[in-house]
Design brief:
Chain A is mainly α and 336 residues long. Chain A is built from 12 helices and 4 strands, in the order H-H-H-H-H-H-E-E-E-H-H-H-E-H-H-H. In chain A, helix 2 packs across helix 10, helix 2 packs antiparallel against helix 11 and helix 3 packs across helix 10. In chain B, the strands form 2 sheets. Chain B has a 6-stranded mixed β-sheet with strand order 6-7-8-3-9-10, with helices on both faces. A 4-stranded antiparallel β-sheet of chain B has the order 2-1-4-5. Classes of the chains: A mainly alpha (336), B alpha/beta (240).
Chain lengths: 336, 240
């Protein structure tokens, strides 16, 4: 093994910026193909907003995957439950939601979001203790247990609210668009981008500036050594699982408002998308998850516009391409 | 001198395999006990079982008179046991500083103790804010040991610290371990390098097939080549 002399400089770690450049390259590539600048701008903003919402839903799952080595196929249940809890709050407050006052809109929206996150966080506690705890380290059983959990959650929503789609109109102040030149940018998409960025920055700050974040990053790499240093990683697992569930709940509310509807199978529908993002990004990598979500959204939007028939398989093709290039995802954090 | 650590008839199963088959071992307080043996004899498994990373299936493990064979790994660490695994297990995505911050469980890093550590591991000071993944093998081993001693510990479990390192680095590691030893630390050290074993060991236990087959003074084993050949299959000189 080659050793460095005391005076030798430490080799600088290579900064891997290629994944971060991919969304930029994709956007630039799409510019001449879309034909008009306004279409391109609209698609790009739609991609960014959709990507941020997918990131919010997937961020918890990637940490759960990376830190706990748990295949949680039931993550979509938290998305659907979050959306339904918010709907329960927002429907009776429809008057405030449709009022032409931002304050009235917020008075309805904020409690709905907070309650959705609290309920999904608490549901995460129950799921981790009841479904996950008995099957740590057993992937096949994890898949069976969490898929079963997703089916139970979905059927419970069907039983309680029926199979019909429940309309969930946007609050009045978030409807409409900002017009810049000949480009219309939907207000809600701007909000979705802002919330996604805030979540991303908050997670990065926690991971990089706090001891809790150090523990999570260390735990993703080597949980056994974290335990040998005197930290109960199972408690850390539980905290991360609950946070991931609450973020999925937040993502569910954002998605439901984006689509202006709620239905019982929405969690199931989004599970595949969220898993694709987590795998593309690299298990346990928040940065990878962020870039992966943007790529998935961009491919869906640009692809849907340019080659509509390709839209159904575009995300799978993207995942295959990324994994052929980097088999452990864009940012490999774990050795899994 | 009292025994800080005592293992009595300890058995460990890992899956279908019966790894430790009745280990009896004592580690006197303030001494360095060498744990020797051929590859696969059960040395690493013994350290992992003491640390609670593998649960003993039978037998007793006592640390300062307290039974710990059913204690969870983090609680064993909190009792004052530092562990340096064979793989070093530094957190490569974290900086040198962050690795040590995590190891300083009881509060902020103690500057005086850090200076003591930097005294024999100057590279850690130099690369304080560098990612641990970029360090050389020897520097990672230094970090792994520094992590175990960044706070005072009752007992250090160190698994083959010189494995795979260049001879120059091995020499400085031995000096470092001697310095730690001078601070009255109690150490259970797995080592294949005879020079290191002879320099550092007060007492010795030799393992074979998951049991202790010899216990005694390190100096006596170092002087008895026929005994070395019988216990280890070759003289310790050949291990260098």
């Amino acid at each position: 093994m080659t050793e460095l002399a005391a005076t030798d400089p430490l080799p600088k770690p290579k900064r891997d910026i290629i994944p971060a450049l991919l969304p930029v390259a994709l956007a630039l590539l799409a510019l001449p193909l879309t034909g008009s600048t306004s279409s391109w701008a609209t698609l790009t903003v739609a991609s960014l907003a959709m990507g941020m919402m997918i990131f919010i839903m997937a961020s918890g799952l990637t940490l759960v995957f990376g830190l706990m080595d748990v295949l949680n196929f039931g993550h979509g249940a938290f998305i659907a439950v979050g959306a339904y809890v918010a709907t329960l709050v927002l429907l009776p407050l429809a008057g405030w939601m449709q009022a032409d006052s931002l304050l009235s809109n917020l008075a309805a929206l904020l409690p709905a979001i907070l309650l959705a996150m609290a309920v999904t966080g608490a549901l995460g506690l129950v799921v981790e203790r009841v479904l996950i705890l008995p099957v740590y380290g057993q992937h096949l059983k994890q898949i069976l247990m969490t898929t079963g959990g997703l089916i139970v959650a979905e059927q419970t929503l069907y039983a309680l609210w029926g199979p019909q789609i429940i309309p969930l109109p946007l609050p009045a102040s978030l409807r409409g668009s900002f017009i810049i030149g000949d480009v219309a940018i939907a207000k809600y998409r701007v909000l979705a981008m802002l919330v996604g960025l805030i979540v991303f920055v908050a997670i990065q700050l926690v991971l990089n500036r706090t001891k809790l974040g150090l523990l999570i990053r260390a735990g993703v790499e080597n949980g056994e050594m974290v335990e040998a240093l005197g930290y109960h990683i199972r408690r850390l697992f539980l905290g991360v699982f609950m946070t991931g569930s609450a973020l999925a709940g937040l993502g569910g509310v954002m998605w439901a408002l984006y689509r202006e509807q709620v239905h019982a199978s929405m969690g199931n529908d989004l599970t595949v998308l969220v898993f694709i993002v987590v795998i593309i990004g690299g298990l346990g990598s928040i940065g990878g998850c962020f870039i992966g979500a943007l790529l998935v959204a961009m491919v869906a939007n640009y692809g849907g516009f340019l080659v509509p028939k390709l839209a159904l398989v575009s995300n799978i093709l993207l995942m295959v391409a990324i994994l052929m290039w980097r088999p452990r995802g864009l940012h490999a954090v774990t050795s899994r | 001198m009292s025994d800080l650590l005592a293992l009595s008839a300890v058995h460990t199963h890992v899956g279908r395999y019966h790894i430790l088959q009745g280990v009896d071992l004592v580690v006197p307080e303030g001494q360095t006990t060498m744990l020797l043996g051929r590859n696969g004899a059960g040395k690493t498994s013994t350290l992992r079982t003491i640390m609670g990373l593998w649960q003993a299936s039978a037998g007793q493990i006592s640390l300062a008179g307290m039974r710990i064979e059913r204690t969870a790994t983090p609680d064993i660490a909190k009792l004052g046991v530092g562990y340096v695994p064979e793989t070093m297990a530094v957190f490569s995505d974290l900086t040198v500083r962050e690795n040590l911050v995590l190891a300083a469980r009881d509060g902020p890093l103690d500057e005086t103790r850090l200076d003591w550590i930097f005294g024999f591991f100057p590279a850690l000071k130099r690369f304080w804010l560098s990612r641990a993944g970029g360090l050389s093998g020897g520097q990672k081993q230094m970090l792994s040991i520094a992590r175990a001693i960044v706070e005072p510990r009752k007992l250090l479990l160190i698994d083959e610290p010189t494995k795979g390192l260049a001879p120059a680095i091995v020499g400085s590691l031995i000096e470092c371990l001697k310095e730690i030893k001078r601070s009255s630390a109690t150490i259970l050290l797995v080592e294949q390098n005879f020079h290191a074993a002879r320099e550092l060991g007060d007492s010795v236990a030799v393992m074979d097939n998951g049991t202790i087959v010899h216990r005694g003074e390190m100096a006596a084993l170092a002087a008895d080549i026929p005994l070395q050949e019988r216990l280890l299959g070759l003289s310790l000189e050949a291990h260098q």
